[in-house]
Amino acid sequence: FVNLACVHFNLINVSCANEYHFTTKTVPVGEDVKLTCARQTDVLYRENLFWIRIVSGKKPELLGGTMNFDFDVEIRKSHITAKQEPGSFVLEINGAMESDDGVYYCIKVQNLNLTFLTGTFLSVKALTMKPVQQNRECSGSKPNQTSLILMLFMLMETVLMNV
């Protein structure tokens, strides 16, 4: 994976913060996801923060933006919310879907300087269960200990393969 976030354009200066963090997060379908970006709260420090999502083959998508001073505005796009919290700017994905896969960046813009603060590669996976075929000698018999262990092992293997 090549990080193309730290590049230089002619009109604006694009860089990565010294404390830049890039993480990978894998979650099951339906789980809530919260991404956090530190926010300077000093009113004399003028900057704007933005959350964007980049998906291969699609245009970058602006998910929300805020100023550094405190105000109580939430930006909602479908099941995604961008909002301020004390000292941070967060992106919440309620009930993540496979279509939420992508790279999420928190970007700070100050004058003509654009700085990538955080990046997260989010992968949303559906849990799939493989059917377990059971062979019983008699319809009224209970499964023995060996078959229970085998079924448990197969279930654990299925869960671990989907994480």
Automatic annotation (TrEMBL):
<dbReference type="InterPro" id="IPR003599">
    <property type="entry name" value="Ig_sub"/>
</dbReference>
<protein>
    <recommendedName>
        <fullName>Ig-like domain-containing protein</fullName>
    </recommendedName>
</protein>
<keyword id="KW-0325">Glycoprotein</keyword>
<dbReference type="InterPro" id="IPR007110">
    <property type="entry name" value="Ig-like_dom"/>
</dbReference>
<dbReference type="GO" id="GO:0005886">
    <property type="term" value="C:plasma membrane"/>
</dbReference>
<feature type="domain" description="Ig-like">
    <location>
        <begin position="30"/>
        <end position="106"/>
    </location>
</feature>
<dbReference type="GO" id="GO:0009617">
    <property type="term" value="P:response to bacterium"/>
</dbReference>
<keyword id="KW-0472">Membrane</keyword>
<keyword id="KW-1003">Cell membrane</keyword>
<dbReference type="InterPro" id="IPR013783">
    <property type="entry name" value="Ig-like_fold"/>
</dbReference>
<keyword id="KW-1015">Disulfide bond</keyword>
<dbReference type="GO" id="GO:0002376">
    <property type="term" value="P:immune system process"/>
</dbReference>
<keyword id="KW-0391">Immunity</keyword>
<keyword id="KW-0732">Signal</keyword>
<dbReference type="InterPro" id="IPR013106">
    <property type="entry name" value="Ig_V-set"/>
</dbReference>
<dbReference type="Pfam" id="PF07686">
    <property type="entry name" value="V-set"/>
</dbReference>
<dbReference type="InterPro" id="IPR052051">
    <property type="entry name" value="TCR_complex_component"/>
</dbReference>
<dbReference type="InterPro" id="IPR036179">
    <property type="entry name" value="Ig-like_dom_sf"/>
</dbReference>
